[in-house]
Each structure stands twice: as structure tokens, then as C-alpha cells.
Amino acid sequence: MSATQLEVLTSPVHQSPLRDIAPAPAPESSSADTPPSRYTKPALLAAAFFITFVAVGMPNSFGIFQDYYESTLFPDKPPAQIILVGSLASSLYMILGAPTGRFADRFGYDTAVLVGSLLIITGLFTASVCTQFYQFLLAQGVTFGLGTAFVYYPAVSVSRRLFSRRHGMANAFVVSGGALGGCVLPYSTRVLLQKHGLPATFQTLGYLASGLLGCSYAAFRFLDHPPVRRGSTKLVDFSLLKDTRFLVMLAATSVAMTGFLPRYFLITPSAVAQGVNSSYAAWLLGLMNGLSIAGRLGIGAFADRYGKLTALVASFVLCGAGHLLFWLPAVLYRGQDAVALMTVFVVFVGLLGSGFVSLIPVVISDLFGGDNLASKVGLFNSIVGVGVLAGPSAANAIVSSKGGGDDWSMAVLFSGLLMLVGGLALTRTYRYL
């Protein structure tokens, strides 16, 4: 018996009464369970970090593009139509998770990263020559989102093969790449748009994506390809839908995640509507993403110590509470009061309410086993992704229905309550453990 196998067999699974009680099923034996050498672990972890920096960080800065499209390029287009571009880029990776996650397990993580990288780069460079709205929808929305669907699942699944004991912390580091991208890219994108225009902005982002994703693909080439097993040729594996734990977790998370994405799209315009300086409003988005790096690492450490499911519930509830306690009153005031409350909101949700993004793959691995993890996370995200896609458009439609366009309270209430209710409903999963 190897030292790695002995470590896995002797690791404590339950350290508190709230910790997930049911042991994960034993993974199937394959070369995929053989961890990479200690020399390739840092490279693979950095590669996954770079992938989320590009694939998640760029869509998280769509609020800057939205403001530019509404004010300059497509002033006659309704905001609800423009926001669809960012919604597709941010949520297609979830909706298409079942087939693309299965693709990663079936053909290898490196192949999935290659296909996705080519699509992302193509989408960015194609957007640099677009002039019509439907062209941006196809390039920046559909093509980029489809590319993210291929690269995301290898990125968030590889940490399970690298770190079995500290999976929560390791995956928090991986997903923090998206937070870092969402921190630095909004400000950088605004500067590029102001100084060089839209085509040069997309070209710069395209070259950045080419470099980072190219390095990531090179690192994933070192990862062993699992052998093809009998029965593994299915496009999608629906077997988990027979597990009551999975269904309860799926229903609760779908509700909560519907309220997750609107803050990334609406925090900047809602701040501007309350009289906050546009530059400071853009900085708020970057601050929220930047602080979520520390927040995700912290909740990952909490998950490793006190239980993955417990940490996921806490993250949803705290994020929903932050919407109601700070963002809701912020959109009811103007001037300095709005500035102060908006700032407190982004600090609160950045530090305490951003961990669920990294925790979902960790919880699924903990409850249902780490074999074929990309397929399992992909199936889960495909169903949850419907709500993620609908959330921003629904919240924006609520704002637009107010007539004046500056009454944001119901949209914030909509998002906050969904996350709070979904997080509390997730506690029902304990009953079936």
C-alpha cells in the first residue's frame, strides 16, 4: 500500500456533529486516482487558477461593457437585452456542464482545456471586429460562454486529485483566480475603453487569454488520462438524479444561485443611479471581487475543518443577509449614505458571502465521491445554471418595470431573499445524510 493510499484511508472524515455524516462512496480504481508528482502539483494548481482568471474573471467585469454598450454603442437597445450578452458568457458554462463535464472525464482534462481555450480566444478576437448587437451576442456571449463550459470543469475538478485532505482550501485557491480577474479586469477594461476603444480592448483581452490559457494547457498535459471504462461513453450520466441527497441539494442551490449573479451586473449601475461617482462605482465591483479571494480561502479552510456542507450553507445565508442588510438600504439613499452602504455591502459579501462558488465541487466530491467529478459537477451545474442565466435578466426587468429606472429596492430584495431562502433550504440535506 502506497503512502498516498494510507493517508486517504486514515484521514478523519468527521470532526464535528455538523460535519457531513455520510461517507463518500469509494472511487473506482483508475489511473485518474493516482496523484501527479509533487513537481507538477504547483503547475497544475496555477494552471487551474489562470483558467478561472480568464473564464470567470472576464465575464465578472461585464458591467463595464454593459455601461459602454448602453451609453455609446447601442443606446436604443433596452438594458434587459444588453445584459443577455453577459448572462450567456457567465452562465453557459453551468447550463452546458453535463455534456462538457462528461467530455472532460471521457477524453481527458487537457483535451477539454484545449477546446475551451480555442473557443474563448476566438470569441474575444471575433468581438473586436463586431459592429452589430447580434454579433456581440454570438461572440462575447455564446462563443466565450461555450469555451468556458469546456475549461471550467477540469479547473475546478483537478484540485481533488491534487489535495485530498485540503480539497476545500485548494479549490478555493483555484476559484480565486476568477475573483482576481474580476478585481483587476473591470478597472483595466474601463481604462482600455476610454483610451483605445472597443476593438483594441477586446484584442488586448484576447492576447492575455491566449498567454494564460496556453500555459494552462501545457500544464494539463502532464496529467494522466484515465482509461476508458465500459459504459463511460454516455453523453450525460443521470444516475445521481436517483439520490435523494443530490435532489434536495440541487433544489435548494437552484433557488439560491438564481440570486447570485445580479450583484455582479447591477452593483455598478445601481451605485451610479444613487449618485455615486462612476469611477468609484466601477471600483466597487473590483473591490468585491478582490475581497472574495480572502473570503473564498477563508471559507475553504472553514470547510476543511468544520464540514463542506456546513460551509456552503453559511456562505449562501451570509450573502443573502448582506443584500438585505446593506445593499437594500443603500439603494434607498443618495449621496454619501449610499456610498458608505455600498462600500460596506461589497466588503461584507466579498469576505463572507462568496465561498459557494468554490464549495459546490468540494461538497459534491465529499458527498458523492471524487471519481468522474467533472461529470457530477457538470450535471449539477446544468440544472442550477437555468436559474443563474435567468437571475440577472429578471432582476434587471424588475428595475425597468419601475418606470423611472432608479428604483432598485425590489431587485435587491429579489436577489437577497432567493439566496437566503435557498441557503436555509439547503439545511434539509442534513436529514438525508
UniProtKB/TrEMBL annotation:
This is Major facilitator superfamily (MFS) profile domain-containing protein. InterPro entries: MFS, MFS_dom, MFS_trans_sf, Proton-linked_MCT. Keywords: Membrane, Transmembrane, Transmembrane helix. Residues 240-433 form the Major facilitator superfamily (MFS) profile domain. It is a multi-pass membrane protein. The keyword Membrane applies. Residues 27-37 have a biased composition (Low complexity). Belongs to the major facilitator superfamily. Monocarboxylate porter (TC 2.A.1.13) family. It is found in: Membrane. Residues 17-37 are annotated as: Disordered. Coiled coil: none annotated. The chain crosses the membrane at residues 43-62, 82-100, 107-127, 133-156, 168-188, 200-223, 244-265, 280-299, 311-332, 338-365, 377-399, 411-430.
